[in-house]
Every structure is written in C-alpha cells, then in structure tokens.
Automatic annotation (TrEMBL):
Assigned keywords, A-Z: Bacterial flagellum biogenesis, Cell projection, Cilium, Flagellum, Repressor, Transcription, Transcription regulation
Biased amino acid composition, Polar residues: 12-24
Annotated segments matching region Disordered: 1-32
Designated name of the protein: Negative regulator of flagellin synthesis
Residues in Anti-sigma-28 factor FlgM C-terminal domain copies: 33-82
Similarity comment: Belongs to the FlgM family.
Organism ancestry: Bacteria, Bacillati, Bacillota, Bacilli, Bacillales
Domain of life: Bacteria
SUPFAM superfamilies: Anti-sigma factor FlgM (SSF101498)
Repressor in keyword set: yes
ATP-binding keyword on record: no
Length: 87
C-alpha cells in the first residue's frame, strides 16, 4: 500500500482559513463606483431652487395685478434698488 499524502485525505485544515482571508482581501480591493458632485453643480442646484421660488412669486404678483389688489410700496422698491447697486 502506497500513501501519497499524509493526513485526512490530503485536506489541509488551515487552508480554508487562508482562503477566507484571501477572499476578503480581494473583495476589499475590488474597485467601486464613486460619485462626487462638484461645487459648481451644487451651485446650479441652488440657483434652480431660487428660480422656482422666483417663478412662484411672479405668478402670485400677476394674480394680484389681475385682481387689482397689488399695492406697490415705493420705499421698499427704492431700498431694493439701492441694495442691488451697492453690492
């Protein structure tokens, strides 16, 4: 009788543990997708929010004008113009 490999039918009991640790290292090293939003894109998102609010305000003003309920306030208009040009 010839014995080719000593032990339990050639199975190394420590090999499973080695394979598991190598498998986790390979899984951790696998490249992953990553998404980054630039500051310019974030600024564009904020502008679109402001544009939406502005459109809602314009629609409200149009309704007030159509109903004859709009009362302009010259002081606030003047303050807004001054603030705009002082920036």
């Amino acid at each position: 009788m010839k014995i080719n490999q000593p032990g339990v039918q050639g199975i190394n009991p420590y090999q499973k543990q080695v394979n598991k640790t190598q498998g986790t290292k390979k899984a951790a090293a696998a490249p992953t997708d990553k998404l980054e939003i630039s500051s310019a894109a974030k600024g564009m998102q904020e502008v679109s929010k402001m544009a939406k609010e502005r459109m809602e305000k314009i629609a409200s003003l149009k309704q007030q004008i159509a109903k004859g309920e709009y009362q302009p306030q010259p002081e606030k208009i003047a303050e807004g113009i001054v603030k705009f040009y002082k920036k």
